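Now produce a polypeptide, keeping tokens residue-aligned:
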Amino acid sequence: MKKKIKVTYQAEYCLSHEPTFDESEVWVVFHGYGQLAEFFIRKFMPFESEDRLFVAPEATNYSYLKDYKGRVGANWMTSHERELAIENNHRYLDQLVNELLEKFENPPAVNVFGFSQGVATATRWASRWNGNVNKFILWAGGFARDLDLKVSNEKFEKTEFISVLGDQDEFVNSEILKKQGELEKALGKEVKKISFKGGHIIDSEVLSQIFENI
């Protein structure tokens, strides 16, 4: 007989700098499958400032990236106990973000960046989080397909979405793009599209152009 028990556990996250809690922008950035927050956040360090704080939560499922030793990566979930992982992710992310925002006297604008597997996790979490997202960048990934459309439509009413995709991304095909288009239409969202020459990566030049125009 299989049962479940709730426990308290520790999760790691990284910050671009020690917060002053006077920042006007907070970016919650979600890494992809097999990545770690401490390396992922480095991609955003050129764009941090006294007014812009980056927060990179780290997924709590870990595995070796090859065989049984060597480099380790984190992932947000697998097909095994998927719903339980989603529930745990939501509790973890709610606590992390809410406790951080509580320390601000003047609430900052909250923005979200998701890469690859982190995009679905980010959209799923943000759609039910008690706060609102100002800007949302979906890089090499799309809206979670199990979103509650009515709830998400209301939650994302004022959210600006940008989708970034490499033209040689090996994880994206025409069927995936078609389903994402249908989901965007069902959500009633206009999503700005940006394409670049490359694969399933975060292109630093494109990332720089985006932050220069935000």
